[in-house]
Structures are given as structure tokens and as C-alpha cells.
Specification:
Length: 428
């Protein structure tokens, strides 16, 4: 009898567990369905709110034509979409965040200061300038005459004198200055204990500016300039480089390295392994100081490099990155500025997003920018130059990033690159 009762009891308990499990499962499914339904309704609500509050900031990319000097090899000519491609990737990245925070950025491309450009600049708080050095100042004047409160961002010129001009205007520089680049080379030379340098430059005014920066670097790092030579393009280098370059680089005193300033790609490409003394070449060939190099993959940069190559079928260069950094800087200012400056109300937001407010947020507010370089980047108040590490790289690989170990600064190690003490002093 007891055996029959125990058997029946076990059967009942087994069935009860099954029914309890089924009931729990049904309740869970019901609760999940209700939660998903609520999320869909909530998501629709928030999506509608975001769309209602979406505010657009117009930006202009002014790209003035750079004539290609005769004799420049075709493989060294810059891509036609240089800079613009970097800005477009930046717009995509900025608008991903903007969807959630209620703002968006647009980008218009112009290549001449005509009536259409005037209309675009009038309605754009931000203008990115990509122009030859000879036209840079005129471009800034023209933009500011059209839109006095516009934020102008230099994304392609390294000339140091431009960092000491336009004091009363909202001008920023995301492209590294020549001084930042040559200081990176100076640190490398001191680290490698190479102190005697032969300098070469082309006839272009930008070559002279690049060389002047290196001469200041040599003084700062106590380097010895063995001789200064200027390249004279009086023959076809493609046919006679092997005989002409060794003769051109012959000096009375020996040297440990050669610095070449050749911004127009006229002769420096023929220097490596072809000089009178076989030494490291740096500057416009050999070891190049760059704002960006396509082999840089640290700190998430590989993901950006891959996206860029997939979209444009080429590698990202330093002008592309300078334009990208400019867009991300504006996006950062929109995200993190004081809410009193950037209201949620559409009309108030439209009125408050001006170049002046963006400039103040980035320079006076010292907002930091995350841009795949392993450091938070900020703008110097004195020169409005973006502080950033400088890549030292050759054609095939990244060598290192400056500032190098052992070069210290009392405030920011990035200020060991470039002139961090100079202030803007020359009026427009």
C-alpha cells in the first residue's frame, strides 16, 4: 500500500514540475512581448523627438586649385579629392553621434570664390580652407568679408607665419605646422646622435618656409648645419638623377643626415641611396614628418583607415586627416559646449551655432578632441594650432610618433613640437 502511495506521489510531483515549467515559460514570453512592445512604442516616441529637434550646421570646404609643376612624377601628384574625402568621412562619423544628440552637419564643396560660393559661405558657420600658400591669406580675407563670424579652419598649409596672423578672426589650424614637423625630426636626430646636417631646398616659397622651420629646429636642438644648398631644376631629373644627385650633395665637410625641403615633389624623391654620402634622408623624402600616415593602426586608427580605403579606394593622407580632425572638432564643440550656448529649441539653436561660439568653445574652453592618436588633442591659445603627435614614417612603414621619450614639457609634452609660446600678433 505504502509503495503504491509513494509511486503515485512521485508521478504527481513530476507532472507538477512540468506544468510549473510550462507556466513559467508562458509568463516569460508574455512579459518579453510586453517589454518589446513598450520598447517599440518608446523608441518611436524618442525617434520622433530626435527628428523634431534635429538641427543642421552647414560647413563649406573651399579647395583652391594647386597647379602641378612641370616635372612632377605622376605617382606623386595629390589625389583630386584630397582633403574633401577626409571631411566626408568626418561628416559621416559626426552625424552618427548627431542622430542621438539632435544635430547634423552638412558639407558643401566649392573650388572658386564666385557668387555660388558667396551664398554657401554666407549660410555656413564653418569654412575649411585648402589652398596653396600663395592664395591662403586672400582666401581667408574673402571668407571673412562674406561672413565675419565664420570659423575658418586651415587644413592644408604648414607655413608658420600663418599661425601668427589674423588675430581678431576665428581661425584654427588642424594641419601641423612646419615647425611641428621639423621639431619631430630634431628629436629623432638627437635621439640617434646625428648632429651634422646638409640642408637642401627647392625654389618654391613653401620650400623656403619649410627650410626656415628646420633652421629654427637646428638652433633649438643644437644641430650643426654643414651647408645649405638650393636645387636648380635645369635638366630632366628622371634621366640624369643618378649622376646629378651625387654631385649636388657633395660638400667640403662630412654630414650625418640630409634634410630636404621639396613641397612640390621636384627632386627629393631621387635622394635616397643616391647621395654623395649615403646617410639618412628626411623631410620631403626618406623619413617624413607627417600629420597622418596610412600605416598607422594604433588606438583604433586601423578601423578608420579601412573605412576610408573602402569608400575612396586609396589610402588616407595628412590633408585628409586634417580635414577629418576639423569636422570632429566642430562635432565635439556641438556635443560638449555649455547648454546655454546651444539650446534645444530649433530657432535658438540656429541663432547660437556661430563660428565665434564654436571657436570660443574649442580655444577658450580647451575642449579636447579624440582623433585616433592616443592623446586628447587641444588647440593652442597662442597660435590656434591643434596640438597633436607627429608621425615619423617612410614609404613602407611608420617608424615612431613624436614627441619622443625624454623630451619633456612643463605643461604638455605635445608642446615640445612647434612654437607653443608665440602668440598671434599680426593683424589681417
Amino acid at each position: 500500500m505504502n509503495r503504491s502511495v509513494n509511486k503515485a506521489l512521485r508521478w504527481f510531483m513530476k507532472k507538477a514540475k512540468v506544468w510549473i515549467g510550462i507556466s513559467t515559460l508562458l509568463l516569460s514570453v508574455s512579459a518579453l512581448h510586453a517589454h518589446v512592445h513598450a520598447q517599440i512604442q518608446s523608441g518611436s516616441k524618442y525617434k520622433g523627438q530626435a527628428e523634431a529637434q534635429q538641427n543642421t550646421t552647414n560647413m563649406v570646404y573651399l579647395k583652391l586649385k594647386r597647379p602641378t609643376p612641370a616635372g612632377t612624377p605622376s605617382y606623386l601628384i595629390s589625389p583630386t579629392d584630397e582633403g574633401i574625402a577626409g571631411a566626408e568621412i568626418g561628416i559621416e562619423d559626426a552625424n552618427i553621434t548627431g542622430k542621438f544628440l539632435g544635430y547634423s552637419l552638412t558639407l558643401a564643396h566649392i573650388n572658386a570664390l564666385d557668387s555660388a560660393a558667396t551664398d554657401a559661405i554666407t549660410h555656413a558657420p564653418v569654412v575649411l580652407i585648402d589652398s596653396p600658400d600663395a592664395q591662403y591669406q586672400e582666401a581667408v580675407r574673402s571668407v571673412v568679408s562674406i561672413n565675419p563670424s565664420a570659423l575658418v579652419v586651415n587644413v592644408a598649409s604648414g607655413k608658420d607665419t600663418f599661425r601668427r596672423m589674423h588675430c581678431e578672426l576665428n581661425v584654427l589650424h588642424t594641419y601641423p605646422s612646419y615647425q611641428m614637423k621639423t621639431d619631430a625630426l630634431g628629436q629623432w636626430l638627437r635621439t640617434k646622435r646625428l648632429s651634422s646636417v646638409l640642408t637642401l631646398r627647392g625654389a618654391h616659397e613653401s620650400d623656403e618656409a619649410y627650410l626656415d622651420a628646420f633652421l629654427r629646429t637646428a638652433k633649438k636642438f643644437k644641430l650643426n648645419i654643414v651647408e645649405k644648398k638650393t636645387w636648380q631644376a635645369s635638366f630632366d631629373l628622371r634621366r640624369s638623377a643618378f649622376s646629378e644627385i651625387p654631385l649636388f650633395t657633395r660638400t667640403k665637410k662630412p654630414y650625418d643626415a640630409i634634410f630636404a625641403a621639396d613641397t612640390q615633389s621636384q627632386y627629393a624623391y631621387s635622394l635616397p641611396f643616391n647621395t654623395h654620402l649615403i646617410v639618412p634622408i628626411m623631410g620631403s623624402a626618406g623619413l617624413k614628418p607627417l600629420g597622418w600616415h596610412f600605416t598607422h593602426e594604433q588606438w583604433g586608427a586601423r578601423q578608420l583607415q579601412n573605412r576610408f580605403k573602402d569608400k575612396f579606394s586609396r589610402t588616407m593622407n595628412e590633408v585628409d586627416f586634417a580635414a577629418y580632425a576639423a569636422i570632429i572638432a566642430i562635432s565635439t564643440a556641438l556635443q560638449r559646449s555649455d547648454s546655454s550656448d546651444f539650446k534645444n529649441n530649433d530657432s535658438q539653436m540656429h541663432e547660437s551655432v556661430t563660428g565665434t561660439r564654436l571657436f570660443n568653445a574649442l580655444v577658450e574652453g580647451q575642449l579636447s578632441i579624440a582623433a585616433y592618436k592616443g592623446r586628447q588633442l587641444t588647440f593652442r591659445k597662442g597660435t590656434r594650432q591643434l596640438r597633436q603627435p607627429t608621425a615619423l614614417a617612410h614609404e613602407e612603414a611608420l617608424v615612431t610618433h613624436a614627441p619622443l621619450s625624454g623630451f619633456l614639457h612643463q605643461l604638455d609634452e605635445l608642446d615640445t613640437l612647434g612654437d607653443a609660446t608665440t602668440t598671434c600678433k599680426d593683424a589681417l
